[in-house]
Design brief:
about 40% helix; alpha/beta; TIM Barrel
């Protein structure tokens, strides 16, 4: 195992003068370019990364796709309309797009059984792409159940946002564990810096390892930390990961697993 291999599976990039989605929850007044992010990765000793589609820009994936074309150390997810066709998905796949993100936080859940979503999920399955889910913990089980019939792979954002007060009894945490054990899902240990008490992500990171092992886990920084700019650095998110899981071999296994999933 290459102990030096590191993969950041969750970050966002954007350029100048990009069109914000009309319902964007935040509108940063600064660009976070791919060049800036790559410099950050180099400074942190991270070789590979995955760009997560930012809900701030809706289906405007242009900047990310161009970055993936240019930089082979990157992969990415996109946000698309359910009616997207096979040829466009195939072209995105060739450019380095590995999945479609469902940004479902504080939104009504779509009908996953309707024709558009049903086709989309089956096409993603056929292309060996995945559905990248961001949803509150108390609604995660319903989303996972809705995705089950297609057989598409699922990557769950930000620990699955488990309820700290409920701990490992949180239904969202349990749903994520069940999906991982069924071989349908993976979980990103990301966004933990948003918890003021780092013992909370530590608890859940260790609980995931105990229940599903390292093979179903990834790590992500969530750079550039939208909404918490200046309160954390990329290097600090790596240090937090080390606090959650002090065993370096365990962290190395998670990085290697991410590389195999996204880049193999």
């Amino acid at each position: 195992m290459n102990a030096e291999l590191r993969v950041d599976t969750h970050a966002h990039i954007w350029g100048d003068a990009m069109p914000f989605w009309s319902k964007a929850w935040n509108r940063p007044a600064y660009p976070y370019t791919v060049e800036t992010y790559l410099e950050t990765l180099d400074a942190s000793g991270v070789e590979f990364a995955v760009i997560a589609a930012a809900s701030l820009f809706g289906t405007y994936n242009d900047y990310v796709i161009r970055a993936l074309r240019q930089h082979k150390r990157l992969r990415g997810t996109v946000i698309v309309d359910p009616e997207i066709g096979l040829y466009e998905l195939e072209a995105m796949r060739r450019d380095g797009v590995v999945g479609v993100r469902l940004q479902l936080f504080h939104t009504d859940l779509p009908d996953f059984a309707d024709d558009g979503h049903n086709r989309l999920f089956h096409r993603l399955r056929d292309l060996d792409m995945h559905v990248h889910v961001n949803i509150e913990a108390h609604r995660l089980a319903a989303v996972l159940e809705g995705l089950r019939p297609s057989g598409v792979k699922v990557v769950i954002d930000h620990f699955g946002w488990p309820d700290a007060e409920k701990g490992v009894d949180c239904p969202g945490f349990q749903a994520a564990v069940d999906a991982c054990r069924d071989g349908r899902a993976w979980v990103k240990l990301s966004g933990g810096f948003r918890r003021p008490d780092q013992d909370i992500p530590r608890l859940f990171a260790q609980a995931y390892v105990e229940r599903v092992g390292t093979d179903r886990l990834f790590w992500g920084s969530d750079a550039p930390f939208v909404g918490m700019e200046g309160k954390v650095t990329h290097r600090q998110t790596l240090d937090q990961f080390a606090y959650w899981l002090p065993d370096p071999d365990m962290r190395a296994a998670i990085h290697l697993n991410a590389h195999d999933f996204y880049f193999a």
